[in-house]
Amino acid sequence: MLSTMTYPTLRLNRLRRTQGIRQLVQETHLRPSQFILPLFVRENIADKVKIESLPGVYQHSLSTVIEEVKTCQKRGISSFLLFGIPSQKDKNASSAYQSHGIVQQTIRAIKDIDANLVVIADCCLCEYTDHGHCGILNVKGLDNDATLDILAQIALSYAQAGADIIAPSGMIDGMVRTIRLALDHHGFNDCLILSYAVKYASAFYGPFREAAGSEKFQGTRNHHQLNPAQSKEALREAILDNQEGADMLIIKPASHYLDIIYMISQHLHVPIAAYHVSGEYALLKLAATQSIIKEQDAFLEHYLSSARAGASMIISYNAKEMAHYLSNQ
Ligand code: PBG
Q1: Is there an atom of ligand 1 within 6 Å of 326 CB?
Q2: Whose CA is nearest to atom 5 of ligand 1?
Q3: What percent of the chain has pLDDT over 90?
Q4: Residue 128: CB within 6 Å of ligand 1?
Q5: Quick one: which of 64, 39, 67, 36 has its CA closest to 54?
Q6: How far is residue 126's CA from residue 49's CA, in Å, rounded to a whole number?
Q7: I want to staple 135 with a disulfide (CB 3.0 to 4.6 A). Which of 147, 153, 291, 297 is the partner?
Q8: Residue nearest atom 2 of ligand 1, based on CA coordinates
Q9: Are 86 and 132 in contact (CB under 8 A)?
């Protein structure tokens, strides 16, 4: 029941007087184990390469990615989302499903460090096609159904390499169902699907193009990613992916879509990941570089808003730094 007391008997500031009291009543908590760190692994490089538009983030070689995973593990981060940058691209993304592809090798190498680490493989064609689209093209544009066959092959090769979770990210109709059927048919019933169920056609993916080596991409993804002006469609996408067999869902970007996170978390009882994307990261980083904001305080506030809205997992390029910050608080 709402209290009928008012000032001066009621003083809400009493709940905020000391750090001890603030922590005692705190509703939302973040732990390093809720974070997922995206990692870019590039074929045929000896050392890591800086990504200029994402300060502090690198394209890794197979050996530097292992070092990075070990450092993260010491800080309590145990989940990683892998993106591959192959040395060969073609129109059919054929370097995506080779058993010795860069992502497949990385999956095995991380599992060799510790089988308990959670390895999530992003499953899309865009890093592997020479045209940079998320699927196979025909004269009309993206060929949805031809793309599904390739996605199934990629997902299977990731599962065979030992991935715990497949994360289809192309917003291709039917992708979750196709991947679930292919995995089950080959005995990978335990492999989870984390679907990018709600992915908006956002301007905030800008720096990802450099990170994923798809700077040459000229087109638009408006034909398959959601229009930022829509919200009911987001719920339809989430419900559909859930029905098709997704174990968990991604909503992306995060900070500008808190209404969507909240809406879906109210409707579906399925774990939700908020993806704080490259542009969101870069904005905070650049402002912090100019001392306009306090870097980790600002990141924490972003993450808290996603968690309050209903996300239980946070995907962020800042995960390693945040884990350090959280354990020193
Ligand atoms: C597609 C994919 C993209 C991102 C993650 N997966 C790019 C896109 O959809 O255009 C963007 C992530 C980010 O900006 O951090 N495989």
Answers
A1: no
A2: 169
A3: 94
A4: no
A5: 39
A6: 20
A7: 147
A8: 169
A9: no
Probe ligand 1: pick from 57, 133, 169, max atoms within 8 Å of CB? 169
Atom of ligand 1 nearest to the CA of 124: 16
Q: How far apart are CA 302 and CA 299, in angstroms?
A: 5
Residue-wise pLDDT for 41-54, tens only, equals 999 999 999 999 99
* pLDDT tier, 2 (very low <50, low <70, confident <90, very high otherwise): low
Q: pLDDT tens digit string along 290-327?
A: 999 999 999 999 999 999 999 999 999 999 999 999 99
Q: Which amino acid is at 237?
A: E
Which residues are the active-site residues? 199, 252
Measured in residues, the chain has a length of 329
CA 127–ligand 1 middle distance (angstroms): 10
CB 163, CB 154: distance < 8 Å: no
Instruction: Kindly state the tokens that stand for 13.
Output: 């500031």
Work out whether the CA dihedral 69, 51, 165, 284 comes out positive or negative: positive
Q: Which residues contact 24 (CB under 8 A, 6 or more apart)?
A: none
Q: Count CB atoms within 10 A of the CB of residue 29.
A: 10
Give the whole-angstrom CA distance, residue 172 versus residue 40.
22
The continuous run of DSSP H or E covering 64 comes out as: helix 62-74
pLDDT for residue 155 is more than 90: yes
CA dist 247 and 268 (Å) reads: 11
- Strand 137-138 and strand 141-142: the pairing is antiparallel
The CA distance from 239 to 244, in Å, is: 9
φ/ψ of residue 134, rounded to 5 = -85, 15
Tokens encoding 177: 């169902």
Position 235: which residue type? L
pLDDT at 202 over 70: yes
Contact 41, 80 (CB under 8 A): no
The pTM for the full model equals 0.97
Q: How far is CA 207 from CA 15, 152, 212, 214, 228, in A?
A: 41, 28, 9, 10, 19
pLDDT of 213: 87
